[in-house]
Amino acid sequence: MIRLSDRAHGKEVDPSEPFVIENRFEHLEVLPTTNVPTQISFPPLTINAPPKTDLWRKPPHIDVDNIPTIFLPKSIDLNKFRSANVTVSGEWNTLYDQGGLVLYIFGEGLKKWVKTGIEFVFGKPFVGTVATARASDWSLVPLSESAGGKVTVHVERETKDDERLESLWVYVIGENGETLGVREVTWVFGPDVIDCDNPTSEERTMLVGVYGARPTVPEGEGRENEELVVKLDGFKVALFDD
User: Fold this and answer.
1) Which residues of the chain form beta strands (DSSP E)?
2) How large is the average pLDDT for residues 93-100?
3) What does the alpha-carbon distance between residue 106 and residue 213 come to, in Å, rounded to a whole number?
4) Dist CA 149 CA 140 (whole Å)
5) What DSSP string describes 68-115?
6) I need a labelling partner for 92 at 20 to 30 A (CA). Which of 27, 116, 122, 171 fits?
C-alpha cells in the first residue's frame, strides 16, 4: 500500500479581484519507475470540504485552487498513467457542492487539471467534469434519481492496438455495471497545448487524487461554516507496467 498524503489548503477568495493562489505543488517528487505497483487500491476515504473551497480557472480574474485533496504521495511520470476510478457520494445540498477524482498535469509551464465526479447544480446532483488548461470548461451529465447522489467515475488513457494515444476518456459506471463514455479530453497526453509549435522538453508528470469542494456558503442560520462531507470508496489507480 502506498501511503496517502492529505493536503488541505484554505484561503479566503474575493472573485472580484485579481489574485494568484500560492503554488502548493512547488516541491513535488516523482514516484520511482521501479518497484511501483501497477494496481494501487485504497480504503474508504472521507473528505470534509469547508465553504469557499473550489478548483476553477476563469480568466481574467479567477484562478482558485484551495480544495481539500487526498493524493498519491508523489506525482508519477505522465506516460505511466493508465486509469483511475472512485465511487463518490455525499449530502449534496448547496450550489456547486462537488467531489470525485482530480488529476493535475505538470511540466509545461502551466498547471493543468481534470476533475470529475458529482456536482450539485439546478437543485440536484449531476456528473460534472471540468478540464482546465488556459481556462476551465465544464460539462454536465444527468444522474438518475435512483442513484441517490452516488456515482462511480472512471478515467482512462485512450489506447489502440497497444499504442497509447493522447486523449483521456471519462466514463460513468452505471448501477447495472454498464460503462458509458461521457467526455473525451484530447490534450492530456499530447504536446503542450499552450504552444504546440514549440513544445517544452521538460519532463511531464501527473498527480492523482480525490477531492471535495464547497464553493458556495450554505444558506440558513448557523450554516455559514458547515462542511460538506464527501465519501470516496473504491479509489484505485492503474499504471502501465513498462
Assistant:
1) 5-7, 39-41, 45-49, 55-58, 62-65, 69-71, 76-77, 81-90, 98-106, 112-121, 124-132, 136-142, 151-160, 163-173, 179-185, 205-213, 228-239
2) 98
3) 22
4) 14
5) -EEE-SSBEEGGGEEEEEEEEEE---STT-EEEEEEEEESSSS-EEEE
6) 171
> What pLDDT is stored for residue 32 in this prediction?
73
State yes or no: pLDDT of 27 exceeds 70: no
Angle made by CA atoms 81, 83, 89, in degrees to the nearest 5: 135
| Cell triple for 231 | 465519501
Please give the Cα distance from 37 to 239 (Å, whole number): 8
- 231 in Cβ contact with 46 (< 8 Å): yes
Domains contained in the chain, CATH given: 36-218+225-239 (2.60.120.200)
105 within 8 A of 192, measured Cβ to Cβ: no
Q: For residue range 143-157, what is the model confidence (pLDDT) as tens digits?
A: 999 999 999 999 999
CA distances from 44 to 70, 159, 206 (A): 12, 29, 22
pLDDT tens readout for residues 165-184: 999 999 999 888 899 999 99
Residue 195 burial (C-beta neighbours within 10 Å; 0-12, 13-18, 19+): exposed
Per-residue pLDDT reduced to its tens digit, 71-86? 988 899 999 999 999 9
